[in-house]
Design brief:
The complex is a heterodimer of chains A (358) and B (148). By secondary structure, chain A is mainly β. Chain A has one helix and 27 strands. By secondary structure, chain B is mainly alpha-helical. Classes of the chains: A mainly beta (358), B mainly alpha (148).
Chain lengths: 358, 148
């Protein structure tokens, strides 16, 4: 072999090795810098007002109106508890519904005061009633299916549906005037793997119903959306997992796809209030004591207008149960934890609480 | 003498053929399962931060090299490029084996079934093929020049 050829080969080998090593070092640097996310824990930004024992763990938050919290129940779908946050008085409500014989699977009651909606995305029928008489009347009946829905106006729902074209999840607004109309924006959710599982997340609506949000479960990202479905902000959380880490099975003969291993959950429940997004994360940052996760859940606070991470705080477990769902209204933070509902107040020293009063 | 000469003639062609098969096969299987490939790269401890463009760049590069092999004018260049690429893949594997406890593979197709040591052997064999190809191709070129 000629010496020039040998030199060339050695040169190329050195080039190849250094390129990969440099890529590795740069990537390490980037990942570690992000990996070293350090949470800030100011002293007691929230104060617990009380825990209220509901007796069952099947309650979910249906809504809030005038210092009163409304809770729906998964196992008794037409049963609602009204809890006055000042007096702690409870009222048990039985929702009347026109047609009980529909094949409901997961009925949810959600409030847009003074209205409430009874819906189940698998049955394309939505009932609506008022908080005065709790009589749910047929509101729409058509072929619009959705996987998640939240009322954002007296005649509008923020929904996540499956696109008939791509079979992927898509966000939209369902509006009922004379007829039901759905407007979809298929650029909001961004597919990484299959467009259904990997984009799964929580639908949010701000406490003043002016802004919408979507927090991905499996990646470090959330979206803030205007009420015409325009993207207002897309922000990364302090976590480092950009690409959802989930593994899916092949489509089986029933046309189903399943998760083959437990997914890496980045963001659990979340809530939106004014410029704040609160996200419950299970993941520990640097210098954090893992023991804390046996006693409390971590909530990270972001400001989407300024695109910043503000700080984090703990919401403590009740009877060794962790936070399942939470909402922020005015200066209340309300969390469903096991059989209880925990009510906290946000301190004005840590939060700018200039939201419109509800 | 004649036999050895024909072996000598045919070796680069076989080498080129093997590389074309390898690259076209792995690039295609990467594209066919692209999202999965991207995820694997995203989980790779080495390239996480660059998963986006690496995931496009590698299979495209593989196809370009395969195309170069088809054109006689560029065979030598293609051998050099494959040599460099195989060196890079091997470095990647060695780094991953030594510096990471989480080991993903995203080589594409049946190659993913190989163990890591098999992988290194496999790569070294291909580096060997590339070097042989380069040596013979270079000599051919110079002898052609001499004749011409």
């Amino acid at each position: 072999m000629k010496t020039t050829t040998i030199y060339r080969l050695i040169g190329l080998a050195i080039f190849g090795i250094t390129t990969v090593v440099i890529l590795f070092l740069l990537s390490e640097h980037e990942v570690h810098r992000n990996n070293a996310f350090v949470r800030r824990y100011p002293h007691h930004p929230i104060t617990k007002m009380f825990d209220f024992d509901l007796g069952y763990d099947s309650y979910y938050i249906a809504g809030y109106s005038n210092q009163e919290l409304f809770l729906g129940n998964h196992t008794a779908p037409l049963h609602v508890i009204k809890l006055n946050l000042i007096t702690k008085d409870t009222t048990h409500i039985r929702v009347q519904i026109e047609d009980k014989n529909l094949p409901f699977k997961s009925v949810k009651i959600k409030l847009f005061p003074p209205y409430f909606f009874v819906m189940d995305g698998t049955v394309p029928v939505i009932f609506r009633g008022t908080l005065r008489d709790w009589e749910a009347k047929l509101w729409i009946k058509n072929n619009i299916y959705f996987t998640k829905g939240l009322p954002i106006d007296s005649n509008e729902l923020f929904v996540r549906s499956i696109s008939s074209k791509t079979k992927e999840s898509v966000l939209g607004i369902l509006k009922v005037t004379d007829t039901a109309n759905i407007v979809l924006n298929n650029t909001l959710l961004q597919k990484q793997i299959d467009g259904v599982f990997d984009v799964d997340g929580s639908l949010l609506v701000s406490s003043d119903y002016q802004t919408l949000g979507y927090v991905y479960y499996y990646r470090n990202e959330f979206l803030v959306i205007g009420n015409n479905l325009e993207l207002l902000a897309k922000q990364q959380t302090i976590d480092t997992v950009k690409i959802a880490r989930i593994s899916l099975s092949e489509i089986d003969d029933r046309g189903e796809v399943k998760m083959t291993s437990p997914p890496l959950e980045i963001n659990k429940s979340a809530t939106l209030s004014g410029e704040y997004i609160f996200i419950n994360s299970k993941r520990l940052g640097k210098y954090e004591d893992g023991e804390m996760l046996n006693q409390a859940s971590i909530i990270d606070l972001y400001d989407w207008k300024n695109k910043t991470y503000k700080f984090s705080f703990y919401v403590y477990d009740v009877d060794k149960k962790k936070i399942k769902e939470f909402k922020v209204w005015n200066d209340y933070l309300i969390a469903i934890i096991g059989n209880s509902v925990s009510v906290y107040k946000l301190k004005s020293s840590h939060f700018e609480l200039n939201n419109t009063k509800l | 003498m004649k036999l050895s000469k024909s072996i000598y003639q045919i070796t680069p062609t076989i080498g080129a053929f093997l590389f074309i098969v390898l690259f076209v096969y792995t690039a295609t299987s990467k594209f066919l399962d692209f999202s999965n490939f991207q995820t694997q790269l995203g989980q790779s401890p080495l390239l996480t931060a660059y998963a986006d463009w690496v995931s496009w760049g590698i299979p495209i590069l593989e196809l370009i090299i395969a195309a170069l092999f088809i054109m006689p004018k560029y065979t030598l260049l293609a051998f050099y490029a494959s040599y460099a690429l195989m060196v890079m893949f091997t470095t990647y594997i060695i780094i991953i084996l030594n510096f990471s406890d989480f080991i993903p593979c995203s080589c594409g197709g049946v190659l993913e079934k190989l163990s890591w040591t098999d992988h290194i052997v496999f790569n070294i064999v291909f580096i060997g093929i590339a070097v042989t190809g380069i040596a013979i191709q270079t000599r051919k070129k110079t002898s052609e020049k001499r004749i011409g």
